[in-house]
Amino acid sequence: MSRRSKKTKTSTQKEDKSAVPIQDEIYVYDADAIEALDVAKPWEEDHKYFNRVRINVLAATKMLKHAIQGVIQGRNKGGMPTEIMGLLVGKPMGNTIIIMDCIELPVEGSETRVVADDEKVLGFMTRMQDRIEELRQDRFIGWDHSYPFDLG
Question: Is the pLDDT of residue 54 over 50?
Answer without folding.
Answer: yes
